Amino acid sequence: MTVQKDRPWLFRTYSGHSSAVETNKLFRTNLGRGQTGLSVAFDLPTQTGYDSDHVLSRGEVGKVGVPISHLGDMETLFNEIPLNKMNTSMTINAPAAWQLALYIATAERQGAARNELAGTTQNDIIKEYLSRGTYIFPPEPSLKLITDIAAFTYREIPKWNPMNVCSYHLQEAGATPEQELAYALATGIAVLDSLKASGQVPDEDFPRVVGRISFFVNAGIRFVTEICKMRAFTELWDEICRERYGVEEEKYRRFRYGVQVNSLGLTEQQPENNVYRILLEMLAVTLSKNARARAVQLPAWNEALGLPRPWDQQWSLRLQQIMAYETDLLEYGDLFDGSAEVTRKVEELKEGARDELARIDEMGGSIPAVETGYMKQKLVESNATRLAAIEAGEQTVVGVNKFAEGEDSPLTAGDGAILTVDPAAEAEQIERLKAWRDQRDSAKADAALEELKSAAKEGRNIMEPSIAAAHAGVTTGEWGTALREVFGEYRAPTGVGGASSAKHGDQLADVRTKVDALSDKMGRRVKMLVGKPGLDGHSNGAEQIAVRARDAGMEVVYEGIRLTPAQIVNAALEEGVHVIGLSILSGSHIPLVTEVLDRMKEAEINDIPLVVGGIIPPEDEEVLVKAGVSRIYTPKDYEINAIMADIANLVEETEAA
Question: Domain B12-binding spans what residues (predicted)?
Fold first, then answer.
């Protein structure tokens, strides 16, 4: 008997590293192994609108994604991949209009029509202010750019999702399920309200645009709660579309989402356990048919250690294929309809989300809630509570704070079980960029940039001028610079200053006593600078260190993300700090830390101890210690109170020397 099965979700892996050439090879390999959609990871310079040779790009090129500086790079990235037959998701936000313009220009060079293209630009700038940090412009012009993309794509690329409202990084920043629901839905509301007010879409077409808004979510380890969260998402979004926007057609009210399951919960300790975590988290977004993901990408088991290899990504892809093709999951209706427990939890989550949505609405919506620091502060507080629970053993993490003793993992033997980016990749990308600038028609590029700036100043839709600029050979950094001149740049609130403290236990009281005594002895308060050099915007760890150092009685200097080594050293000089702490999660720790150390020596403050936190392989730890780093903390060092005690002892030793 033949059983009718539902069509499976899109199988994706989040991919990009080193160069467009290397990433293209990875794309074609993964597609050959059964992947059905592409998910592009861009490097940090690309995500923040800089060229590879910008001063802030040093050490960051090709590390967490692929560098795309111009049309030539985009054509190389999709070489031998027909874009009119592909569904491509691009994790890009502040420069989403630009990367979409490059994608469209590439498709046109391939001979494809715009209306044949299908895919998604993430394009959620609000969560960048709250958690991931790859924003460029202030909130209002950023919202205008999102509005322009939505208005353009519904006319020109009707199968394109102009925005993934992205709650993924909210959970990574510590959001509770209720906060994740509320902040994501508030973002969707902000975009649709802006689009309606812009007048770019006729009222009769507005439901179609609503129907193209998609979501990108996170699924954590508490998979029953996560199943209920996804059902709550679908019901709340349907309610918003009906009641706020008057959308009558059910298909335009559907909560369409893709997912990457939780990377926050992946552990450096006993990393083989991560395979089970990934499986359980995937169940949360596939078991409930009425709230099933449209696309799934899974992290690799070793992402807490570094960049996954092709084999690691293949392993995650095989999990999706086994679930879709070997099990009977797709043969049945929704397994949870009629469940009293599921219904109770869904209603509880919806009630909490509605309450938080009402608070945001009273403030005037998402933009004021970002600008006042309200949402960021709440996330910092939630994350502090989560970490304190892990430290206290109230929240179990197997292999970390319970059942920590075990055999060494054979999976991490040999080459370190991660992919490393060739240091030469950055220099080679810069050479290609210079060659591109030399061979293009500079007059055409300059004229295209002037038209781009005029469109921005006049409030016109930015997409057609951006596509013309792409064809004219304009670079990512030039596009970013042009719009920075018009819109300005932005530094989002850190949320640290106003965040209330979580419970930290007796150990922190001991650290406070130590810090107080040391401060009295020195005649002034122990002072710590927490710095984020380079373009890495993942600030959750730095924020928690800053909050805990404050709670331990230290005076803390934390100015947020995206600082040059020169700015960090200047701040250390001006503030007269006793210790400098750097947080780097992008893999760029060696070039950035060594530059900070060199500048400290030039400024004659190399007697100040420097500590570093991040995802740092053991072999790199040795390099950094030899260079002069006093302490290195990696994800295995989850007890922040112990880190604070160690830093206090380090300051005492330095003062006594």
Answer: 525-654
pLDDT at 97: 98
pLDDT grade, residue 43 (50/70/90)? Answer: very high
408 assigned to some structural domain: no
In this structure, the answer to whether residues 516 and 468 fall within a common structural domain is no
Same domain, 514 and 628: yes
Q: What is the total count of domains within the chain? A: 3
pLDDT of residue 507: 78
Asked whether residue 239 falls in the same domain as residue 381, the answer is: yes
From 54, 70, 169, 229, the catalytic residue: 169
The reply to whether 14 belongs to the active site is yes
Catalytic annotation present for 538:
yes
Is pLDDT at 139 greater than 90 in this prediction? yes
Collapsed DSSP state (helix, strand, coil) of residue 287: coil
Distance set, CA 625 to CA 569, 585, 644 (Å): 19, 18, 19
Q: Assess whether 374 carries a catalytic annotation.
A: no
Model confidence pLDDT, tens digit, residues 190-214: 999 999 999 999 999 999 999 999 9
- 108 in the same domain as 219: no
AA letter at 229: K
Residue 561 has which token pair? Answer: 């993300």
Task: Record the pTM.
Answer: 0.90
Look at residue 201 and tell me if it is in a domain.
yes
Question: Which residue of the set 536, 589, 620, 638 is catalytic?
Answer: 536
Q: Does 388 share its domain with 431?
A: no
In terms of domains, do 433 and 521 share one? no
- Backbone region of residue 555 per phi and psi (left: phi > 0; alpha: psi in -120 to 50; beta: other values): beta
Same domain, 513 and 482: no
Residue 189 has pLDDT above 90, yes or no: yes
| Catalytic residue of the set 103, 129, 154, 168 | 168
Domain range spanning residue 375?
Answer: 176-392
Contacts of 134 (CB under 8 A, 6+ apart): 44, 47, 48, 93, 94, 128, 535, 537
Is 196 assigned a catalytic role?
no
